Amino acid sequence: MGLEFSIVPAVRIFRGIMICDGDIIAILKKFRVWSFGGIVHHLLPNVDLLSSYGISIDLIRKHLVKKPLPFLRKPETFKNMVIRVEKRLGISHDSPLFLYGIHLVSSFTEENIESKFRMFKRFGWTQSDVENYIMKNTSCFTISEASIKKKMEFLMNELGLDPAYLIAHTLLLTCSLEKRVVPRHKVLSILKEKGLMKKIPTLITVLRLSEPNFVTRFVLPFEEVHEVYVKHTGCSIKTLAKQSADSLL
């Protein structure tokens, strides 16, 4: 297939919706030549549909550059996706979450999405809570329900954290519960109970630290936490000390 019948028309269409050449190149690299037909025949009708819903071209461009594939579906398929976002996910077309919903329904089955929504709601989350969390962390749909359930039971039932806090700090549900969240929580609890530090940081603060950094600051200096941290991480203090030392080289 010649350039005149593949790449060139695609580039013209992207330029027509004011996408800069640098972003156009990045988008085209994600596709094979034979798939450029989707750009030529499908993109503009789909963009027009979104525009008819009152979605700004600036917002459409932002999502198109980041994840172009959903916007290149056949217009009929894309229209059904738009309907699913409103009817099934309950996200209005005038919501800033709407295009995130497009990405979701293009990547996951309806059954998978609804099952995830039900799981969150069992922990007292509202529809709005789930939608806001999705906007900040669409990757939550790639995590198994069993894993999310286990994390929610610990974070909400044991630590007493509410949906608003988890929405504001999405890292809490994406970190490994067994390898990161629980061990660091246990360390902070001991440091607080024994008065070993004047000011105890929050769990979310220490979750942002690299393993060597956390160990250097909150584990190695305090023998009282060595046993519990070794128990939960499976690493010896000698190994942890070496890893921390190596990270400083």
TrEMBL record:
Segments forming a coiled coil: none
Keyword Transit peptide among UniProt keywords: yes
Molecular functions (GO terms): nucleic acid binding
Residues making up the signal peptide according to the UniProt record: none
Pfam families: mTERF
Family: Belongs to the mTERF family.
Name of the featured protein: Uncharacterized protein
Protein source organism: Saponaria officinalis (Common soapwort)
